[in-house]
Amino acid sequence: QVQLVESGGGLVQPGGSLRLSCAASGSRFSINTMGWYRQAPGKERELVATITTGGTTNYADSVKGRFTISRDNAKDTVYLQMNSMKPEDTAVYYCYVRTVYSRTLYDFWGQGTQVTVSS
User: Fold this and answer.
1) Phi, psi at residue 27, to the nearest 5°?
2) Are 44 and 34 contacting, i.e. CB atoms less than 8 angstroms apart?
3) What is each CA distance from 89 to 18, 49, 54, 82, 116, in whole angstroms?
4) Which of 1, 20, 82, 93 is the most exposed place for a label (fewest CB within 10 A)?
5) Three-class SS of residue 87?
6) CB-based contacts of 25: which residues, under 8 Å, 6+ apart?
7) What distance in Å separates the CA atoms of residue 85 and residue 56, rounded to the nearest whole number?
8) Under-50 pLDDT residues of the chain
9) 10-12 and 113-117 as β-strands: parallel, antiparallel, unpaired?
10) pLDDT in tens, 60-91
11) CA 4 to each of CA 13, 72, 78, 83, 95: distance values in angstroms, whole numbers, following the listed order
12) Is the CB of residue 14 less than 8 Å from the CB of residue 86?
């Protein structure tokens, strides 16, 4: 029901910035929470940031003050502005959306986009 198209990944130097976008389409129901997760080599997938329809945000401690999540509800698009990037931010980033219908949760994931922070 939901198709997620991610863009914006790539290579950036330490201290640089990168902006990820994820557009959701195909849903016949309202999208509630949207966000980003990431998985670094040899590590488990972890939450980066989430944002609710009302704009409430949640960030991993490791990215607070550096990353900013936002969304455009009219376009069903979520963004992740990443500033002051560090090598440890290197990971595959996955877009995430949660829909709710009749009190049932439906989660969807993007295909993942590689983000590499290196000199």
Assistant:
1) -85, 135
2) no
3) 11, 13, 27, 9, 7
4) 1
5) helix
6) 2, 3, 5, 76
7) 23
8) none
9) parallel
10) 999 999 999 999 988 899 999 999 999 999 99
11) 27, 14, 10, 23, 7
12) yes
